[in-house]
Specification:
The chain is built from 3 helices and 7 strands, in the order βαβββαβαββ. It is an alpha+beta fold. It has a 7-stranded mixed beta sheet with strand order 1-2-3-4-5-7-6, with helices on both faces.
């Protein structure tokens, strides 16, 4: 499955896919994250036939429970179109974006992974930390991180 990865802004098409895949049934405004429009935020999309089929964002945010890193970013809003999951698009998004983050001297990325996504993150070098916790209206999550 070929998908082209590119760095993008959080434009309408990007936010629409985030809303569709991660916030179905909720207001579109719930798909906007604090920090989306900051100049130090990174957004990446996977394109197949000129259509965005996968997304991921990285927002500069520390987590005091993690190994110290002067340049720590939170991975947020990662998703791949349901019909294209299992074809390596998510891995390509992680690999390509981590390469760009390394060039920007970012040393650690972390996320609150949905329970069902934990195997994906483990396969991509993330480490679980702590216990599962519930995010209202979203479900069970666990803190995960990756040194890069």
């Amino acid at each position: 499955m070929f998908a082209y990865i590119q760095q993008v802004s959080a434009n309408d098409e990007f936010i629409n896919l985030r809303h569709k895949l991660l916030r179905p049934g909720r207001a579109r405004s719930s798909a906007f994250f604090e920090g989306d429009n900051r100049c130090d935020t990174f957004h990446f999309s996977a394109l197949k036939n000129q259509t965005i089929v996968g997304i991921v964002s990285y927002i500069k945010r520390k987590n005091a429970t993690l190994p110290h890193s002067a340049n720590m970013y939170q991975l947020r809003g990662m998703a791949v179109d349901m019909s294209l999951r299992g074809f390596g698009i998510g891995k390509k998004l992680i690999d390509a974006s981590v390469n760009i983050l390394k060039l920007n001297k970012i040393g650690l990325i972390w996320c609150n992974s949905r329970k069902e996504s934990v195997p994906f993150y483990l396969k991509n070098g993330f480490i679980k930390k702590g216990d599962y916790f519930d995010i209202p209206d979203v479900g069970s999550h666990i803190l995960m991180y990756k040194l890069i």
